[in-house]
Automatic annotation (TrEMBL):
Compartmental location: Membrane
Keywords: Membrane, Transmembrane, Transmembrane helix
InterPro entries in alphabetical order: ATG33
UniProt record similarity statement: Belongs to the ATG33 family.
UniProt entry tagged with the keyword Transmembrane: yes
Major location category of this protein: membrane
PANTHER family, alphabetized: AUTOPHAGY-RELATED PROTEIN 33-RELATED
Organism: Naumovozyma dairenensis (strain ATCC 10597 / BCRC 20456 / CBS 421 / NBRC 0211 / NRRL Y-12639) (Saccharomyces dairenensis)
Domain of life: Eukaryota
GO biological process, one term: macroautophagy
Cellular component terms per the entry's GO annotation: mitochondrial outer membrane
Signal peptide positions (record): none
Protein name: Autophagy-related protein 33
Length: 202
């Protein structure tokens, strides 16, 4: 395989990894300095778009590094190529798993707190017969057919469960900083090690 093809795939790999690390760092800074209310109301769509670009750059970087490693001669299959293959899947996987766990923990904690507050504020509500109505069942009072139970899915969706959670935001910022630091560190290491590869090619 000519060295020009390897140089091309390597350039694409390192460039896409640099863009991924830079975009991830920018997202981390924006998430850290932006209030949670503004982040969930005004910047939410932009964050989704940035997340799509980050995923695309991560996939491009991983594929380019894997192709460079596969096409390189055995003597040129250096460790930094494997670092480039692993960094994007590891950071994305860490973000996904840790985000799921933190959201699940925060939701469980919020439900428990709401249940305790409800028991302390109105303990007599348990004795009401309406508490035996199924969760999604509308009130049976002979009213219009379109009546919907206040405990139904729509009311729950528009209620406290949609409010931004400060603990989730704090956990997200920590996860972003860890991922950004890892991506930047690996990127700097790859750039440093790739500078000495032309002496090996000769």
């Amino acid at each position: 395989m000519p060295h020009t093809s390897l140089d091309l795939t390597k350039t694409v790999a390192i460039s896409s990894l640099g863009l991924y690390a830079g975009l991830l760092t920018t997202t981390t800074l924006v998430s850290t300095i932006t209030p949670i209310d503004l982040l969930t109301s005004q910047v939410r769509h932009l964050a989704c778009v940035i997340g799509c670009y980050e995923s695309g750059l991560a996939a491009l970087s991983t594929g380019a590094f894997a192709l460079t490693y596969y096409l390189s001669p055995p003597k040129l299959r250096l460790p930094y190529l494997l670092y480039g293959v692993a960094v994007s899947p590891l950071t994305c996987g860490y973000m996904y798993v840790s985000s799921k766990l933190s959201h699940a923990w925060a939701s469980k904690k919020e439900i428990k707190s709401n249940a305790e507050n409800s028991d302390m504020s109105s303990p007599e509500v348990v004795e009401e017969p309406t508490s035996k109505v199924p969760f999604h069942h509308p009130p049976i009072d002979g009213s219009a057919e379109g009546a919907e139970c206040p405990f139904g899915k729509k009311a729950h969706k528009n209620g406290a469960s949609v409010k931004p959670n400060a603990s989730c935001h704090k956990a997200l910022n920590i996860q972003l900083w860890v991922s950004a630091a890892a991506a930047l560190g690996i990127f700097v290491k790859i750039v440093h090690e790739s500078r000495y590869e032309p002496t090996v090619l000769l």
